[in-house]
Every structure is written in C-alpha cells, then in structure tokens.
C-alpha cells in the first residue's frame, strides 16, 4: 500500500536472504551477525541503484545499530521508520502469515537483539494498514529534512566540495552568511551558476539550513580558522541535536580542534576536525581527506566523504581517519609544512638557475620537465611549470607578480609545535622565515641599494649536473622531517598514527602529491625513518653531495637558499657523531651554571665553578 501511495517500488529484505540463511531460520535457528552481514551489505549495494532510480520502500529487520550502519554505508539518503508493536501482536500477525519460512519461535530472539533506533520516526502497528500508510506519508510530507549533508561557507573550498558531493548524488544543503550589501544570496548564486549540477539546496538562514538536514545531521564548516569557527559552532548549537556531527574542514590549529571536540561532546555532538587538501581543483575533483576526532562522527560521515575523495594509484580513496582529538588537523598542519618546504625549494632552485646561473626561463622549464619525467614529478612541479609558461602581454606573468608571499597559520603553528615536542625543523622554519622576509619589501629594496651583491661567476658546467640531485635531496630531507614530526607527536599523544597510510592519503588529491610520496608510502611500511632506510641510503649519500655543492655555489652567486641550506645542515647535523654541542653546553654552564654531562659518565650533571679567571 505504501509503495503504491508513494509511487515507489517495494522490496522485502527477506527476499534477499541467501539460501543458507533461509534454511537456518526454517530450522528455528536465529541468524547471527556473520549470517546477516553479507545480506545487509547486498541490500546496501542494491539501495544505491534504487536511489539512482528515484527511491524505493524497503522493509527490513535492521535490528542493531551496526546493521543500520551497514545499510547506510554507501551514503544513500534514508528515511527511517520504526514499526513498533508488542511481542504478542507481532506473534499473532506472524501466525496468520502464510508461506513464510520464519517460525514464530524466532520472534523472541529478534526482540532480544533489537536496539531501538534513535533517528527514526516510530509508527505504532496496532492501527489499520491505511492509518499506518497515512502516518508514514504525512511524516514524509512534513519532513523538512531533505538533504543528507550540509556545508557552511561557500568560498573557494566549500563551493567546490558542495558541487563534488552533489555530482556524486549526495543531496546537500549549503549555507553562507549574509552581509547586507556585501555578501548576499551567496549560496543561491552558487546553485544558479551551476544549473548542470542537481541536488543542492541553498540557504541564507542557518535555522532553515539545519532543519533541511536529515538526522543525525552532518554539517561541514569550510570557513577561516580561529574564533570564527567557535562563533559558528555557538550559532549552530542553537539548532542541532544530540547525535549530530559537526565537521571543521578548514585549516584549524589542532589543539583548538581537540578542545572543540571535548566541548561538543558535552552537548552530545560528534566533532570531526578534518584536514582537506587539494585547493579548488582537488575539492572539486577529488581531495585528500584527513579526518580526526570523534570516531562515531567519522563513522557517520565516512560513506559520504569517501565518495568525493581522490583515488590513490591502487584506486583506494585518499581518505584516512588519522586518529582521535585534533589528529586530523595536526596531520593537515604537517602536510602544509611539507608544502611550505616544497614550494620554497622550487623557488630557490628557480632563483639560482635564473639569477645565479643566468639560465633562461624556457631552459628552466625544459629542465624541470625533464626532472618530472625522470621521477621527480609532483603537483607543485606541474604548477610551477604552468606558472613559468604563463604570459601576459607577451611577458612572463611571474615577472609582474609582487614578490611578497602570505601565510595563513599552519606553517607557523608547525614551527612552534616542532619546538614544543623537540623536533628539529630547520627547513620549515627557514621556509616560514623566507615568507616573512618577503613581506619586508621596502626594506629589502633599500638594503639592496646599500649592499649591492658582487656575485661570483659560477661555472655552469660543473654545477648543472648537481642540480637535480640537490633538488631531490632537499625534498627528501623536507619529507623526512615532516614525518619525524608526525612520529614524535603521534607517539607522545598516543594517537597510533600510521605513517604509510598518511603518505598514501597524500598520493592524490593533495597539493603535495608526487612520485616521491608514492615511494614513501611504500618505504614507511618497513621503516619510520627515511635516513635509516636501506632503500634510500644510496640516494642520501649521492644527493647530499650535490646539495652541498649547489648550496655552496648558490651562496657564492649571492642567491639566498634558506631551505636548501637548512636541509643540508640538517643532514650533516643528524649524521655527525661528535658535534660541537659540547662547546655550547660548556658555555651554558660557564655563564648560567646549567651543568654538563661527561662523555664517560652521562648519568648526572656536573658543574665547574670557575671557568673564567675574572
Ligand atoms: N583555499 C585552499 O586551498 C584551502 C583552504 N583550506 C581552508 O578551508 C577554509 C576555507 O578556505 P577557503 O574556501 O579557501 O576560504 P574563502 O575565503 O574562499 O571562503 C571562506 C568562507 O568562509 C565564510 N566566512 C568568512 N568569515 C566568516 C564568518 N565570520 N562567519 C561565517 N562565515 C564566514 C566566507 O563567507 P563570505 O563569503 O560571506 O565572506 C566564505 O564562505 C579555511 O580554513 C582554509 O584555510 C583548506 C584547504 C585548502
Ligand atoms: O591548506 C592549503 C593547501 O593545502 C591552503 O591553500 C592554505 O591556505 C595554504 O597555507 P598558506 O595560506 O599558509 O600558504
């Protein structure tokens, strides 16, 4: 009757049981989880087709929370109705039923297994079938919750993710704030600008947006980090309900995300701090996703975000639940710190080639293309090639772009986090510093007059052969340190981070995807330190010589190479058995009585009273 009324096909889940389940029930034996799992999985796959064809009515004894999880694992939109009746009434109806394999004796075991659904409309079955159908139809009609997923913030990332989700058949609602006269109807304009993409409902009122989402609601915020996130959460709290999930997909500081998860837990809200990489194109076509925080929250959003994630070389989604607390945003922070290093190395090698060696831009492009084809390719290298070939009015566009680089937080946070956890992170510090120096444009201009550099002529022939090795080595060290930060913090916080999975998650969709990242995903399966990995030993040995040579030549030529020199210094430092830190410690003791340990007995500190005569 309901099927007719709703104009949708009807399916009875009982018809999908395999023969062995039917035979078991016929014998009066209750099914267990092992019997039911493949059956529910089959149903959840069928539901994808049903949804694509406009929907269906399914009757199913989805008794447990976990069973319902399986049913929704493909992220289809489901309106749940719980048909409630007492045991005697159900038994009576079962007895009247003809030609069904299930004996009444199994009913009590079913009711024992039943875990009441929290997010379903309960319909009493002690009414006429007509009334039951009427109740369901009226609930469907009055139900304003029509979308499976909501996104707040229709900027670069939010709008691209919204279009991506909608194209994967996820019904979504989108919301953007209104600033009278400045930002109006932003969400509506997005929908109007993309008539080819169906299934997006725009809102400019937060309450209506939240009401449009089916429960448990899944709300992704794509807004700037900081207090704005707290303010948005505070506004949402007025409208959301227990069991809903709030996801922060922005570049928030991971310690803030851990606090927000704790805070929202108090309201029964699941909070997921999710790193997202890929910029506009990645978000639109397949980003790399690094969720962390509430595992229950991740469980609920997983089927949806899996649909939009980029795919690694083996076709697996670039999506990895990294760990609890702020682990997702921590991993995104480190991702960005590697990104800072990668970009700065590209800038340094380009500057050295152009200014130090006097190589033309078209030759630099050819060289970079060659490196790409020889296994040093990356998304950022491709982007650099695009930039180095972009012209405006017959001139290289790059030459018309002001040499001032901004930053929005993650790099600086990574520097302070590395210092807090005792991880040497000189290349990142150098990359952040290089951007800071770039902002002092006026001072740089005037100082370049005061200190004009007399660059030494470099023998191109000698240095050209070392360039690629130097580039590779700086990148290798940059990655080594990023992952060492992940290892250190992950261990200290007991997050159980998986380096190989994290690298895998960055092999596509991510700004730092590269051939190297694909290799590292394999290397991290057997080693958690690149410098100690036998696979990379030869490369470290050879390329470190090239890097030293290029950095030396670069400095001689008067070109700053902060990240590349930090990288070779890191490598030298970490492979120096006997360093000069003893002098530093002795000095500390000399002026500050900080004490020192002796090489033949490091168990305790000693202090020398009189280092200096006066
Ligand atoms: N761009 C990128 O490559 C990436 C960005 N991110 C992160 O994703 C988040 C969004 O970035 P992106 O889309 O680039 O940023 P945009 O600046 O393009 O968009 C920001 C969005 O946030 C909204 N917003 C701004 N202030 C407020 C506020 N006070 N209250 C509510 N909404 C507000 C804006 O609305 P309005 O239009 O009205 O101002 C806009 O919709 C940031 O945290 C960013 O760091 C993460 C990965 C990549
Ligand atoms: O997260 C990103 C890419 O992965 C964003 O583009 C972010 O803005 C980059 O950081 P910054 O603005 O500090 O350069």
From TrEMBL:
<dbReference type="InterPro" id="IPR013328">
    <property type="entry name" value="6PGD_dom2"/>
</dbReference>
<keyword id="KW-0560">Oxidoreductase</keyword>
<keyword id="KW-0521">NADP</keyword>
<keyword id="KW-0418">Kinase</keyword>
<keyword id="KW-0570">Pentose shunt</keyword>
<keyword id="KW-0067">ATP-binding</keyword>
<dbReference type="InterPro" id="IPR036291">
    <property type="entry name" value="NAD(P)-bd_dom_sf"/>
</dbReference>
<feature type="domain" description="6-phosphogluconate dehydrogenase C-terminal">
    <location>
        <begin position="328"/>
        <end position="612"/>
    </location>
</feature>
<dbReference type="InterPro" id="IPR027417">
    <property type="entry name" value="P-loop_NTPase"/>
</dbReference>
<keyword id="KW-0547">Nucleotide-binding</keyword>
<dbReference type="InterPro" id="IPR006113">
    <property type="entry name" value="6PGDH_Gnd/GntZ"/>
</dbReference>
<keyword id="KW-0311">Gluconate utilization</keyword>
<keyword id="KW-0808">Transferase</keyword>
<comment type="pathway">
    <text>Carbohydrate degradation; pentose phosphate pathway; D-ribulose 5-phosphate from D-glucose 6-phosphate (oxidative stage): step 3/3.</text>
</comment>
<dbReference type="InterPro" id="IPR006183">
    <property type="entry name" value="Pgluconate_DH"/>
</dbReference>
<comment type="similarity">
    <text>Belongs to the gluconokinase GntK/GntV family.</text>
</comment>
<dbReference type="InterPro" id="IPR006115">
    <property type="entry name" value="6PGDH_NADP-bd"/>
</dbReference>
<protein>
    <recommendedName>
        <fullName>6-phosphogluconate dehydrogenase, decarboxylating</fullName>
        <ecNumber>1.1.1.44</ecNumber>
    </recommendedName>
</protein>
<dbReference type="Pfam" id="PF00393">
    <property type="entry name" value="6PGD"/>
</dbReference>
<dbReference type="InterPro" id="IPR008927">
    <property type="entry name" value="6-PGluconate_DH-like_C_sf"/>
</dbReference>
<comment type="function">
    <text>Catalyzes the oxidative decarboxylation of 6-phosphogluconate to ribulose 5-phosphate and CO(2), with concomitant reduction of NADP to NADPH.</text>
</comment>
<dbReference type="Pfam" id="PF03446">
    <property type="entry name" value="NAD_binding_2"/>
</dbReference>
<comment type="similarity">
    <text>Belongs to the 6-phosphogluconate dehydrogenase family.</text>
</comment>
<dbReference type="InterPro" id="IPR006001">
    <property type="entry name" value="Therm_gnt_kin"/>
</dbReference>
<comment type="pathway">
    <text>Carbohydrate acid metabolism.</text>
</comment>
<dbReference type="InterPro" id="IPR006114">
    <property type="entry name" value="6PGDH_C"/>
</dbReference>
């Amino acid at each position: 009757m309901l099927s007719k009324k709703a104009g949708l096909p009807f399916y009875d889940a009982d018809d999908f049981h395999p023969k062995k389940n039917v035979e078991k029930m016929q014998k009066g034996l209750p099914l267990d989880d092992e019997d039911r799992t493949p059956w529910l999985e089959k149903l959840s796959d069928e539901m994808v087709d049903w949804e694509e064809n406009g929907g269906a009515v399914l009757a199913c004894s989805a008794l447990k929370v976990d069973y319902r999880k399986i049913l929704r694992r493909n992220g289809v939109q489901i309106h749940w109705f719980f048909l409630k009746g007492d045991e005697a009434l159900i038994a009576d109806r079962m007895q009247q039923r003809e030609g069904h394999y299930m004996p009444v004796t199994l009913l009590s075991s079913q009711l024992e297994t039943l875990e009441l659904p929290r997010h379903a409309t309960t319909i009493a079955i002690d009414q006429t079938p007509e009334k039951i159908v009427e109740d369901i139809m009226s609930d469907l009609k009055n139900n304003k919750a029509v979308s499976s997923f909501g996104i707040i913030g229709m900027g670069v990332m939010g709008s691209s993710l919204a279009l991506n989700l909608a194209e994967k058949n996820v019904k979504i609602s989108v919301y953007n704030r209104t600033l009278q006269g400045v930002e109006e109807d932003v969400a509506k304009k997005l929908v109007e600008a993309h008539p080819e993409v169906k299934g997006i409902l725009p809102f400019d009122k937060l309450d209506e947006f939240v009401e449009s989402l089916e429960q448990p609601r899944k709300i992704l915020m794509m807004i700037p980090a900081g207090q704005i996130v707290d303010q948005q959460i505070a506004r949402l709290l007025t409208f959301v309900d227990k069991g809903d999930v709030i996801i922060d997909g922005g570049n928030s500081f991971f310690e803030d995300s851990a606090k927000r998860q704790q805070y929202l837990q108090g309201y029964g809200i699941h909070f997921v701090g999710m790193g997202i990489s890929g910029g506009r194109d990645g978000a639109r076509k397949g980003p790399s996703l690094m969720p962390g925080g509430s595992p229950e929250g991740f469980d609920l959003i997983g089927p949806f975000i899996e649909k939009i994630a980029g795919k690694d070389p083996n076709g697996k989604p670039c999506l990895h639940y990294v760990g609890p607390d702020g682990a997702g945003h921590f991993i995104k922070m480190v991702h960005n710190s590697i990104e800072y290093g990668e970009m700065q190395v590209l800038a340094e090698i380009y500057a050295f080639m152009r200014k130090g060696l006097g190589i033309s831009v078209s030759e630099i492009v050819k060289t970079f293309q060659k490196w790409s084809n020889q296994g040093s390719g990356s998304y950022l290298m491709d982007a650099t090639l695009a930039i180095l070939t972009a012209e405006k009015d017959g001139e290289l566009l790059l030459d018309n772009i002001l040499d001032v680089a901004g930053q929005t937080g993650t790099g600086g946070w990574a520097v302070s986090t590395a210092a807090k956890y005792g991880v040497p992170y000189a290349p990142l510090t150098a990359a952040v510093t290089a951007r800071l120096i770039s902002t002092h444009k006026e001072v740089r201009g005037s100082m370049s007059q005061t200190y004009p550099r007399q660059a030494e002529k470099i023998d191109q022939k000698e240095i050209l052969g070392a360039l690629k090795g130097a580039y590779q080595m700086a990148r290798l060290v940059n990655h080594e340190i990023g992952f060492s930060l992940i290892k250190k913090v992950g261990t200290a916080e007991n997050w159980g981070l998986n380096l190989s999975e994290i690298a895998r998650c960055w092999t596509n969709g991510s700004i730092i995807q590269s051939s190297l990242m694909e290799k590292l995903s394999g290397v991290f399966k057997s080693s958690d330190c690149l410098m100690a990995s036998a696979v990379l030993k030869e490369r470290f040995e050879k390329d470190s010589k090239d890097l030293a040579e290029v950095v030396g030549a670069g400095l001689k030529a008067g070109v700053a190479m902060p990240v590349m020199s930090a990288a070779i210094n890191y490598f030298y430092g970490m492979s120096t058995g006997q360093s000069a830190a003893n002098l530093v410690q002795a000095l500390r003791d000399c002026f500050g009585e900080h004490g020192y340990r002796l090489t033949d007995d490091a168990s305790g500190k000693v202090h020398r009273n009189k280092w200096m005569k006066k």
